[in-house]
## 1
Amino acid sequence: MSTIVAAAVRDEHVEVPAKPTKTVRRSKLLYIGLTLLGLLILFAAVAPLFGSPYVLHRDGLTDLGSPLGILSPGHLAGTDSLGRDLLARSASGLRATLVIAIAANVTSMLVGTVVGLIAGSFGPVVQQGLMRVVDVFLSIPIVLSGLALASIVGRGMWGIVVVVTALYWAWTARLVYGEVLRLRGRGFVEAAAVHGVGKLTILRRHILPHISTVLLNIAALNGAAVVVIGAGLSYLGAGIQPPQPELGNLLASGSTAIDYAPHLLLVPLVLTIATVLSFVLIAEGINRRNSLSERQSWLDI
Amino acid sequence: MNAPSGAPSATAGGPATAAPRVIGSDVVVSDLSISYGSYCAVRDVGFEIKAGTTMALVGESGSGKSTIALAASRLLPRGTTIDSGSICVNGRDVVRMQGNELREMRGDTVAYLAQDALAALNPVVRIGRQVSEIYSVRGGDRKAVAEAKAIAALAQVNINDPERVVRMYPHQLSGGMRQRVMIAMALAFEPALLIADEPTTALDVTVQAEILQLIVDLQARNGLTCLWITHDMSVVAEMADSVTVLYGGRMLESSDVYSMFDTPRQPYTRKLLDCFASGRSAKPKEAFSAIPGSPSAHSTTTGCPFASRCDRADDVCVSETPRSVELAPDHWVACHHPLDIETEDDVKTPALAASRGGQS
Amino acid sequence: MARYLTTRVLYGVVTIALVILLTFMIQYMLPGDPARTIAGPRASEEVLAAVRERLHLNDPLALQLWHYYSSVFTGDLGESYTRHRPVLDLILERLPATALLAVTALAVEMILGASLGLWEALRPTRSWALAATNVALLSIPPFALGFLLLLAFGYLVPIFPVDGGTGFSHLVLPALTLGVLGAPYYANVVRDGMKDALASSFTRTAVAKGLSRRYVVSRHVVRNALPPSITMLGMDVAIMFSGVVFVEAIFGWPGIGALQTEAFADVDRPVLTGTVIVAAVLVVLGNLAADVIRAFIDPRAKVGAL
């Protein structure tokens, strides 16, 4: 409704407005996602409270090393076949996963944003050149090359961060590039350029404020993807190595014990899904909050 | 062109049993009120268009003219309510139609001509198909027949080489040609009422003149009744047989075009004409900005909507809504203090007669 | 049209050339002994010397690059250190299996995704059930879904075989996993494209002509919603290549993904790099194909208006 009024005051041809949407309901998703993520971070942070993930509690295990089930004395989630407390391992594993995810997300977005900004701000030569490079990294399947790269760069936590960053920055770069182009087409950037405002100033004053919402969106979606990729690579053995716990390698070892100890798989699985879910919810929440008035279908009039 | 109105209809149902349609019919709008949620865009508007004539609906943004156009075409989005009133075309109330009856009336009773022809045409479908589908899908014609009719329709709107144009896509045509295509599509079923929603605003001046001339010719040929939405007084001077002035959702003045230009009775109309006459070479939009003040953000529920900007306004104008009064035959004015034709200076629009020269 | 296509082909060629350059740089130019990088940590001194000789590692860098390019273009991607066979042969052997899996998975993804996307776009009111399904599917990691399906339909309800193989019954679960995982992304693209088209001016024109709802949707709206989903299919090639790594490992489907996992375990570097090159080439070709199809559908591309 305010759009008609605003347009009227500006003396423009009034576009008949769409039905105003209820924005309040949408951002519920955002808060749920943030809360979930917060809880998970909390859980990971207090991991030391659950004891060490490396100590072998062998009381109660049979000679064959069968693991203890859920709610056995002293072990809320049971233990694995070596007697290590599952809750401790899962919490530490979550912590490792989150650290990797956040680190990889931040670095890949940094690189990607810088490249995207540069590509969008300069002439066609720089533009095309950088975009070809971006294309290269977009054409390389991530997990496939993640394995190849990991064999060269090495395993372990930072290996994974490097691998994921190196391969994933291109997605951010392309999205930022697209956004910069879109903003440039809006006229106020061209106007500033014509007036002789320096490129850096244009970037700072006109473009950066507007891409912040896009960046948030990218951050959330990237977060989800990076968790999956990081855990996936660990699952395949390319990341953090046992005995150090990480959700991916916990899933790998848990899957072997699936017939007699499903909790070994299910506990880390639930945590992984919850983590990804929280990022997805945050992304959805941001998305919906930003679509102010949903254009409605002309079929429904 | 004074075709008599058709027999009173009232029979709903398929085209076979509809009232015998006369090309160009009387249009009666009465007590129309439309709102978007709590914002009232149109209040108690009423006017009549005689068969075969063109009525110009004039107003600034927010005056409600587009809303009325969309209401008559039944293209208002969901969430818009028609609080009261009716729009009767050839005796049938367009506003109350539903379902199949509604679908049948589209293009057949009322046709809508949009402002932006590029956006209004499907970019991935050829022009020929976009025109012929009206004949084949709605009219039941076979493909070949429909295509031939499409070519004929394009020729009728003065498109040269229509056989070539039907194979083209919208982005390959010029603005003027696209608008002609839209006109061809709108008139395909010879509607009783054509609603033109500022169709020439996006075109440059020479093309605008061509399109206006085209519509005038078509109207003369087919006896089309036309409701022309505009904020451009020069277009009104060119085209209109009668004019209704809207402001803030209400009707302020409605009469035939000569009376309106010679003896406007509403102060707002007077101001419009003054600005138009003095700034003849200026862009039409500036006519409005020359009037001090701006339309208030909310349409007033009581009182004259123009009161805050009118220099003749007093307390009555603010507290009481002026009712529409017929001050002269077919000249309706809603004003507590209408201009007195005896004492007011001549309105400076000497060009009106000249620009109309030869057309009636 | 011709101009548009030649541009895209040119970009594709440049991209592939750069991918090869990248693999070269990583193998040959990182600090450390490139021979060691290529031969792996377990190679002996003789093997290293042989590698240096064969790969011209003693020549200047530019010459090395030249040798690298020429060998790649002649199809020589090196030889697997564990299997002692040319890498390209190994890859080509496994490629058909992955291709079959990918195509089937794509079909599942398209059918499922398009149905969801169309349904959601054409509803006048939002459905939180659909949105919830969307979110749920987006949140499951590929390896997790694969495992759950294997557990459910391989062990608990033994419909499908749990050993490896290439028969039809072996294809179902992995294809389903990949397809279901990709479906929400495809559904989103379809839905957004449809919603955009449904809210456009030309849809209003179609309605104003009095055309039926079904006609408007099928003949006007869908055509406009199509191009973005074709682009999505192009991107899917890259996504599939990543997905198959997990799925083939879990279900024992003998394709490229399994090859890569095995090579990783063996630290078989030539295979690891060779697979990446081949995959990148296929991704570029896939995107090119998508561009071509899109150009055919969208007339604005033909005339170079895009």
Note: Chain C touches chain A through 66 residues (CB under 8 Å).
## 2
Amino acid sequence: MGLYIVRRVLAAIPVVLGVMVLSFAMLHLTPGDPAVVVAGADAPPEAVEAIRRQLGLTRPLPVQFLSYLGQAVSGNFGHSLVSRKPVSEEIRRLLGPTLQLVVAALGFAVAAALGLGVASAVWRGTLLDRLATAAGVLGLSLPIFWVGLMLIWWLAFQWALFPISGWGGPIWTARGFHYTILPALTLGATLIGPLARMTRATLLEVLRQEYIRTARAKGLAEPRVVYVHALGNAALPLITVIGLQFGYLLGGAVVTETIFGWPGMGRTAVLAILSRDFPIVQGIVVTVAVGFVAVNLVVDLLYAVFDPRIRY
Amino acid sequence: MAPTPPNARRSRDEPGPVSMAGASRRLARKPLMLAMLVVLLGCAAATALAPHLAPYDPYRVDTARRLELPGREHWLGTDEFGRDVLSRLLHGGRVTLVVGLLATAIGLVVGVTVGVVAAYFRRLDNPIMRATDVFMAIPAVLLAIAVVAVLGPGLVQITVAVGVSSVPPFARLARSAVLSLREREFVEASRAAGASDLFIIRRDILPNVLPSVLVYASLHTARSLVSVSILSFLGLGVQPPVAEWGAMVSGARNYLRHAPLLATVPSMAIFVVVLCFNLLGDELRDVLDPRLRGVV
């Protein structure tokens, strides 16, 4: 197991290095002079020259790459071209809100999907099951921005229950929690469909197993059979689906943060592109990719935790 | 889940080349799939014929009639500049659908080529797959955003952006399909008969990879359409005043409080098309290749 973890972590390193190469190439693959691209086509020559010096573009390309790589490995992506602050400092500031949004959305989605999926599996073939299945398929295809806008219109404008947008602080404060609800609902809603579908399918599969019959035969209460014996064994496929969907979740976070004026990495990446703040875009792309790789790694490792039969 | 009939089990355990024959027979038994096809073709026809069908010029501004509700003159109302929403919806659909389909096509052609090359020429396998690992490590929307960051916002740029982010999944799918095919007897027979690599790929491999690729292409088109509309919604895709579904929602955002319908109309258009491609993919999988259940 320990060896397996080490091997998996080592295997992730080339991927992360590759992402760094890609993010370096991003700037240099641009048609034309990168400095002009960053400064804007109509920038005065002095500004272009200043940016060229600031980005170190006067040095030979391999030197630039090695210095970029060396800096990036230690988490240094240079300075924002707009705020002039170090990119690492900006990202540290953005990390908390994004994590809060993603974790809250994930929590909401898992809770809702478990409820829906268990109900569908237990009352299989009933109207409720069919409605839940249909809702899952429909929900999967709803544009996330519309879900967010309608939640704002309905719960923030019509009912004035929640703030329209903004960041209210960490989720454990009352204000922060209040501000997190609508964005988390928006982002989580996209995940409920696939998760509920998977819960239902695996639970039905598990409920046919013999150890479930044994559990029932020895007189355990049905809720205990479903929630402890069956659901515990259905956890593995669910974790897989969460891992697979995590990329879409991060993509959805970009939209959700933009709609709700959430001060996280997604919204900042969009703003940075519009203001041509390349170092920020690079830093965010690398940070998100590292996070994504880490989540997939954790998902793989959780396999061993949830299924003791798996040994590496 | 119903007990598996014995013949279904056999066909799953016995991976054979999947024939397209019989697909049309199974299609006739799939009313949902036919309905999806009809809706999609209807959408395609309506947007293709937009210049003839649209009741108004989608760019004609009429400031006296801003944000009107649906009525006799404007069936779906007017937007923040008094432009006819129905006309913009029809014209906008052309952009969304063409960009979404084109991006999937880029992903399909490049991805399948890369995947086949990786699986067939084993020496290239490792480097190619490690490269797709890197691309897959960046979430699709973020990868598309990074490409837009390089190329700048615009129609061609988002097509390329979404296309690039579509390559890795197609490459992986094609690679795994080819890996199992290339050891099969009919491929070996071709090789023994002296067929060239190119001939084997064209005649033996590609036709057998096609069903799973088509299934995935339908599911992936749904994702491409979502990515395209998201990029436009974020202001990174099509630039105003060009009509495009995601961009229309973006414009309607500022008038949400009093005109929620304005954001809803193009959103529902996206919803219908995405839903059709998702369901079509699910059904296609059953028709073309039942073994793919749970794989794609």
Note: The CA atoms of residues 29 and 205 of chain A lie 50 Å apart.
## 3
Amino acid sequence: MKKGLVSFLVKAVPLLAAWAIVLVLINAGIVTDYYLATMATICINIVLAVSLNLITGFTGQFSLGHAGFMAIGAYTCAMVTMAEPSVLGFVGGLLGGGVLAALVGLLVGLPTLRLRGDYLAIATLGMAEIIRIILLNQDATNGAAGLSGIPAFLDWNWMFFLTVATVWIIANFLHSSQGRACISVREDEIAAESIGVHTVRSKVLAFMIGAFFAGIAGGMYASYFYFIKPDLFGFLKSVDILVIVVLGGLGSLSGSIIAAILLALISTALQPFPELRMIIYSLALVVIMIFRPQGLMGSREVSLGVLNRFRRREPAVATASAAPAIRRDDDEEVV
Amino acid sequence: MGEFAQQVINGLSLGSIYALIALGYTMVYGIIQLINFAHGDVYMVGAYVGYFSMTTLRLGFFESLLIAMVICMVLGVVIERVAYKPLRNSTRIAVLITAIGVSLLLEYTMMFFVGAAVRSYPPLPDYLTGSFQVGGVTVGNQQVLIIGVSLLLMAILQLIVRRTRVGRAMRAVSQDADAARLMGINVDNTISFTFALGSALAGAAGVLVGVYYNSINPLMGILPGLKAFVAAVFGGIGLIPGALIGGFFIGGVETFVSAAGQSLYKDAVVFGILIAILIIKPTGLLGRNVKEKV
């Protein structure tokens, strides 16, 4: 019990410290709105990438429709907060968007997840396009012009803790029996089925959780940038998210986080040359796939749990060689 | 009735363009089970090559068509050799991601060089711009040209695939690449040849679209590419007749949805058809069901 508490503190203290430091810097006026916008982009991209990684990296279901779920979350959150501009409305819109995205994920996932890899990719792409076209042609969503003047509630506290919560929940899901079932589906669907894993349920579950958090990310986007239009959630947005996941490593949550930060910095630096940015992105995709298809991290993880190792080394020397499996397990933890 | 016949003509000309693109998708899928996302962008490159050949080089329509086909053929082979060949033994997801990467690379490299602005195709010679009446239906010479060129190319393709040695090699590789290799077929060259054929057709489709719609831009390949893929899936991916049927079907559906005043939803309808097909009969109209083996 006590050991668990210490292990938790080892992870929680650096995170809280990071949060507090940035908060102080914001209040001191050192972190300006410009930097904060970059950080919002990073947080939103982390949520998107981690949730797509759950679907594509861990469960092995290639989805090209993540931007569609994001769009559902963004529009739901925007419309709810515009009708009810309070923190309660914001939280309601955020959760409502997530739940709605998850429901659409269920609706699309149940039939299409029976398809194999690339067919699924096309089906999800088609689904995202349909969502975008519907948003484009509704009066309530104001068509191609989009919604503007969405009340902004997403400050640093919200974005930080929403991101941490997302990563924490997905990491814990992956360590649950359901999460292990998802990973077994990726490794070998037929073998997983033969040992009693309900593969369709695992896939749909991963798909819904991924969609839920994509919806949350959409809500975060709407609330921070207070302007959304259907074109923001097109095929290219899905590819953007995919690039993060692939670069970080399919099957590595920490890889997604690192890649989200890295790519946000690169694209901020390349802001004056948007065309060059896309050329570099696409070249990176091809080069990574040819020379390092496992991405930066492969399926390994770095985590704040690494700090635990320093603490445990002295008393655990005797048992370390006897229990390598347990140690490996600890290393995989995230946050 | 006249209105209906008119829409059929429009649907046929649009459908033959989709069919040309879908043929490339379906042949590549048939031979290496890859959705070649870059295919739609090869078509875009074809449109630009045709444009520059007509404006800068002041060549005629048919010469430009040939040049576009040859350049796209080379482009297709280069893409295959550089991007896809090193991944022959990788996972399907890896190859698919590479294909998306190549697609974006083509789009944005093109945008970098020619700019994002829409360009309009040069005016055509008189004999291609007129139109004539058949029983109250207006048929543009362009439409005749598009349908005619498409049908001719499809016939040539069918001849190559059915009657030549390399065509037989293509069919052999698509059935079983390992067995084909044991029989002395050069699998790599056959795959390259498939890309060459498909890309040449896409290049031709690009020029035809430029002539038909009169406007081109670096991102024009995305949506028609996806729709042509839907057409290939509809007909049964990997099957050449399937791509033809699918192309004409999707072209027809799109034309009739637009004619019904719902043109804003025409793309959504096409993707709806895709999802419906994938759910009801994933192997497509003409496809046979192949059991997955352990």
Note: The radius of gyration of chain B is 19 Å.
## 4
Amino acid sequence: MSDVFIAFQANEESRPVIDAIVADNPHAVLSHPTGLVKVNAPNALTIRRETIEGLIGRSFDLQQIHVNLVTISGYIDEDDDQLTLSWKH
Amino acid sequence: MDTRVTSKKLGLKERYAAMTRGLGWETTYQPMDKVFPYDKYEGIKIHDWDKWQDPFRLTMEAYWKYQGEKEKKLYAVIEAFAQNNGQLGVTDARYINALKIFIQGVTPLEYYAHRGFAHVGRQFTGEGARVAAQMQSVDELRHYQTETHAISHYNKHFNGMHHSNHWFDRVWYLSVPKSFFEDACTGGPFEFLTAVSFSFEYVLTNLLFVPFMSGAANNGDMSTVTFGFSAQSDESRHMTLGIECIKFLLEQDPDNVPIVQRWIDKWFWRGYRLLSIVAMMQDYMLPKRVMSWKEAWEMYAEESGGALFKDLARYGIREPAGWKQACEGKAHISHQTWNAFYNYNAAAPIHTWVPSDEELNWLSEKYPESFDQYYRPRLEHFREQQQAGNRFYSKTLPMLCNTCQIPMIFTEEGDASQICYRESDYKAYKYHFCSDHCKSIFDHEPEKYVQSWLPVHQVYQGNCFKPGTDPTAEGFDPLMAVLDFYEMNVGRDNFDFEGSEDQKNFAAWKGDTK
């Protein structure tokens, strides 16, 4: 079983995104390389727009994560409501 | 009375499809094969372009919006950096030489990538692939520009950065990155994607970016760090293009597998050789060190690459042919490459030096299997010579590998006391290689590689002198004539860091009275 991961710049914009990932993915593990927040999870992780909106109290376009995204590992499935990373095999 | 009808807003996937895929058509005025002449000749079989999955569904509108946001953030930092004399915040002026390597050898590759993706962005019959390539082409031009801007402030205060475009086309070590990309751009569109999007931007990308960006962060270089983070968000899109294209090719037809495997073998190896200069930078040019090249290789190649090739095994893809040798080389290549630059520093517009005792000890600790046995004695000898007033510079030219174009500095797998030499005979000539893998790349397409512009050959053929140079004149110095052709500022851009203008200036600005 391989890890998927996603890393963001460590700043105020990415903070609620990270918090949402941690809330929705109990097996996610955070690390903090210089200037980054990196989330590792076995096999798959999902980012949900609704969870982020609940944290920030306003509407949020999931594609806004592009501005602070640093790196990603795994296959992506994306729509208006969620972005999922996974390894199929 | 008319009832207002509100149409349901399209979801992301539908919006994306309408604004990209929906814009393509089967041509009727001219046959498709004439409109798209390059996407069959490599032997890659595509039965259904609709199976291409766009992982990041960015419409052009979304693209410009988010790229615009990134640019505003980035340029605000670059401006603040310049206004606040950020160049004084670096740990040590030796660090600037890492930036010289970057602007000379990496930044021009962004421009080549821009051109390469613009080309393939026209050549695929599948619209999804064309759109992704076109966006990447704009990204790469952005990277060329933002790297140039991020480093431009340093150019006002340090040597070795002002003429990088001119050097890229002429200077001996810069033919290594140049030939790498020209090899990719002159392949067909599917090879280009396998070479750049997959092998470089997916498999090896972290080994380029993390050393430079972490090195910048550790050494007080805010400008480069900010560029790095800004570019990485583009890179994540590039990585997903890389993994999608490889998956697509392998799923379309089993006949594609051996073709793609051969490309993976070739481009992993060419990428690995290209990264030698990054390995050297990471182990020798960062006054405040991050991690060793060997550690970076273990994390980003062995671990991440391991997971990737495990996933691709279901298609019949195995790890690249040169994988084991590249893993064995992790304990050696940085030291071997630094040695070459130290020797040839008269002809290179950067500075080199012998590391301090503290730095030598760090290298011993990080490389217990190789450093004290093979490389420390050499460096200590160089230091002795320098202290005795004999800092020497090689004035002769090395043999180059005909494929990767690096001087023959690499050693046999398992025996670092033996330089690795391989050769092939083709038509009337003998060709030389640093490894079995460079040789096999040549042997597969000799008609391509016999056309290589090898700097050493070109100097010996008299093609690296300015017009009007007379080699028969009294006191003719061929090295100086070549440096004139390079348009290097001799005595300012080159030679040892000790005694350099960079060193003196930085000490004066920082108020060091040493």
Note: Chain A has a mean pLDDT of 92.
